[in-house]
Amino acid sequence: MMKNVMEVLFLLMLLFTVHAKEKSYNPPEKPALTRCRSPEKETFTCWWEPGSDGGLPTTYALYYRKENSETVYECPDYHTAGENSCFFNKNDTSIWVNYNISVVAANALGRAFSDPVDIDVVYIVKPNPPEKLKVAVMEDKGWPFLRVSWEPPHKADTRSGWITLIYELRVRLEEEDDWEMHLAGQQKMFNIFSLRSGGKYLVEVRCKPDHGFWSEWSSTSYINVPDYFPREKSMWILVAAFSAFIFLILTWLLHMNTHRLKHCILPPVPGPKIKGFDKQLLKNGKSDEFFSALVVPNFPEASPSKYEDMLVVEFFEVKEQELMLEESNDLLDGGLKYESSRSDSDSGRGSCDSHTLLLDKCREAKEERQTNRDGSLIEKQIRQKDRKEEAISPDISSGRVKTWPSLYSPLPQYGSNPLDKQSSLEMAKQHSLSISSFLTQPGTKDALGLSYMDFCLSNKQNHVHPQTQVQTRSNVNISNIGHKHAPAGLHSPTTQYVEVQRVNKEDMVLLQPVLSRCGLIEDCPHLPKGEDYSKVKGVDYDNRLLLQREGTGEDMCSGMDQETNGERGNCYTTSTVSIMQKPTACIYTVMPIQEGMALTLNGYVDTANMGNLPSC
Amino acid sequence: MGKSSSHHFVLHCKKGTMKKVLFAALCLVYLELSMRVVSAPICSYGQAGCHVPSLADLFERVIQQSSRMHSVSSDLHSEFEQYFFPSKNIMGKRKCHTYDILTPQDKENAQRLGREQLTEVIVTLLRAWGEPLSELHQSMSQDQHQDFNIYSSNKALEISDIVHELKDGVKIITDKMRLMGVLSNTVGYNSPESLVPSSAFYTQGDLDSMDHHDLLYCFRRDSNKVKNYLRVLKCTTLPELGC
């Protein structure tokens, strides 16, 4: 029985010890002093971190020694500063004295000493945050700013100079995350500029002794910045000014490039081209081929002209020597675009301007009429050349109508033999031929008129072989011409110039000699200006050259063709008679314009160059 | 042709720059002379022709200097500690040679001391450190730890100079305060030189790095005392300055 009890006891004890080993009790672990802080350099507090208590109730004690003293004191106050802390009050705190502090943890099983810590209170100062933070919106010349003011923590005695604090504040907008820091030094007031209109700002401030730790941030102060108008207004003004500036620049650019734009949007009407005109052929020197190329089948239209009774030239045969054509081409190429020729003020140029004339007589009149600068230059050139050429221009034998003024060519150095010129001139240029009959009575318009008529009528059937026909005729007639028109002052009394008078409805060209006295003779100052010439008015739909006469006053030519009724030079000829009587004639020509038509630079058609002219 | 022109150009340039330099130098000289003429020398007794600074200005100047003194010494000490004693073992049993200078250890004591005594303490402290600092500087510049000491010996020299200036400054202030009647005339510098300990306190022979460390530690503390006492002095003497 005893044995049984003993065994039970033994078992119980075993159980107990086993049980006891699972929950082992240890002496406490070493605590550690975490930090000591003084808020005003007059008191301080130390906190420690306890280690494991070993399962047993553990007590902690803080002991300290002062510098150069062996006396160990215990912490006077464990409670004021909370758990695991020791608070040193003013009496126990000495500045500039080294404290050696350690904490001891003790429980039933043992004690544990923490590592000692040496502190000097002056270097552990961490003040409380500043107090009474005030933020206000103030205005400086219409621009608002924040005025932030605060006070030092009430415990820190800055007034006596015992402690010196420096401050720092931070600002941000409510919706943003980044703070804007400002160091304020020892001052207790600060201004913040560059505010956003209508924004809500958060402001905080903290402080630090000159050697110590930063305090915590103070409680946040909120402020609303009111909407201020000037800033927005100025912004809108800026925007408006900027956009106006951009607009001005765009307008200026547009203005500068109007021409290009016009070209883009409204492309220019292409110039006239003479069908069959082949420059290369011409240059090659094979005039036969060239002229054959110029021949257009089914031409001219056999439409009766209203003014059939008028003397008209059926058509011209332009048989030119290469020189002339080249010259004319050059002139043509020389930049006389068709549209510019329209604008080219042929107006004001009299018949004198026609290259078929000797020009020096008409120079004065001409100059007055010059409105186009380009034209004037060329005119002058022509005149100069004319002068030159005059010297070498051969006297056409009587009867030769010099319809081709070598005069007018600005490029005299082709080395053309004037004689050659003449000879070629004689040839087909014989629209003059038609004038032939006309010119039998030089100087009289009547005669001219009649001649025209005759020619026209006679040539009606002849347009199949215009060249030859014309030629033959002309030869005969030209000789007559030469006599008659030899007014004083003419250099070559035997030469006669012919001008295209007009073109009737049937596309017949009316020629007239350019022997209007007033045009050629000096003593006719009252020559009405701008009458004796043919001027290109335009090209009609059918690539026909529209000539017009520029004239005023009494010269009236009947507006035969509708095309020629235009803004200027509405000439109306009532009758051929009237035409003849007048010193100047109204000239209308409508002729098909083919490639390389010999337009002079001033827009005048060189009748000499005509080919395939309409017949009446 | 090109070369000669470039040569010409270079010469011309040089001449031009020389002229500019000369002009600049002349300008500087003129400015300095003119500034010298304009500014009046500072004197404490108000002799003719000099500008007398106010007490506030003097205090401001002195406090700035003491602040500078403390920060330099603090830097020097922490560098020393990092370089030589990373274990952060501050002096244990050793004493500073100024330990027997009675200094107020807290605010009440400092305020209770009064202006005269406070001024005296300050002066005493400053005088106590004149010699040891110059010895420290000498010792540091001779030390074999060249890479560290070249940089720190300059600082030691700077500290030494500041202390010297501070002494003069505080003297001027006390004179002025006496003049103003703020300070009674009974205060004298009654701590004889013999009582002022020297660096012999620390070691008999030459100072070594351990001595340097101790010196720096002690001086850091004392400079802080001086700075604090000066501030207290200023704020009790001139409370309207808004301490």
From TrEMBL, chain A:
CDD domains, alphabetically? FN3
Region annotation (Disordered) ranges: 366-396
Recorded topology in the membrane: Single-pass type I membrane protein
Question: Has the keyword Repressor been applied to this entry?
Answer: no
Q: Give the range the annotation lists for the signal sequence.
A: 1-20
Gene Ontology molecular function terms on file: cytokine binding; cytokine receptor activity; metal ion binding
Q: Where is the Fibronectin type-III domain?
A: 27-128, 129-228
Provide this UniProt record's keywords sorted from A to Z: Disulfide bond, Glycoprotein, Membrane, Metal-binding, Receptor, Repeat, Signal, Transmembrane, Transmembrane helix, Zinc
Tell me yes or no: is Transmembrane helix among this UniProt entry's keywords.
Answer: yes
What Gene Ontology cellular-component terms does the record carry? Answer: external side of plasma membrane; receptor complex
- UniProt superkingdom: Eukaryota
Q: What is its main location?
A: membrane
Q: Quote the subcellular location field of this record.
A: Membrane
Write out the transmembrane intervals: 235-254
Q: Where is the composition biased (Basic and acidic residues)?
A: 366-391
Q: Which Pfam families match?
A: EpoR_lig-bind
Q: Which family does it belong to?
A: Belongs to the type I cytokine receptor family. Type 1 subfamily.
Q: What does the UniProt function comment say about this protein?
A: This is a receptor for the anterior pituitary hormone prolactin.
Q: What is known of its domains?
A: The box 1 motif is required for JAK interaction and/or activation. The WSXWS motif appears to be necessary for proper protein folding and thereby efficient intracellular transport and cell-surface receptor binding.
Annotated protein name in UniProt: Prolactin receptor
Which organism is this entry from?
Eleginops maclovinus (Patagonian blennie)
Q: Which gene encodes it?
A: PRLR
From TrEMBL, chain B:
Biological process terms from the Gene Ontology for this record are:
positive regulation of receptor signaling pathway via JAK-STAT; response to nutrient levels
* A GO term for molecular function: hormone activity
Enumerate the UniProt keywords alphabetically. Disulfide bond, Hormone, Secreted, Signal
Taking the first listed entry, what is the main subcellular location of this protein, grouped into a coarse class?
A: secreted
Cellular component per GO, a single term: extracellular space
State the InterPro entries in the record: 4_helix_cytokine-like_core, Somatotropin/Prolactin, Somatotropin_CS
- Subcellular location(s) per record: Secreted
Looking up Gene3D superfamilies in the UniProt record yields: 1.20.1250.10
PANTHER family associated with the record: PROLACTIN LIKE, SOMATOTROPIN,PROLACTIN
Q: Which family does it belong to?
A: Belongs to the somatotropin/prolactin family.
Task: Name it.
Answer: Prolactin 2
This protein's species is Eleginops maclovinus (Patagonian blennie)
Q: What is the lineage of its organism?
A: Eukaryota, Metazoa, Chordata, Craniata, Vertebrata
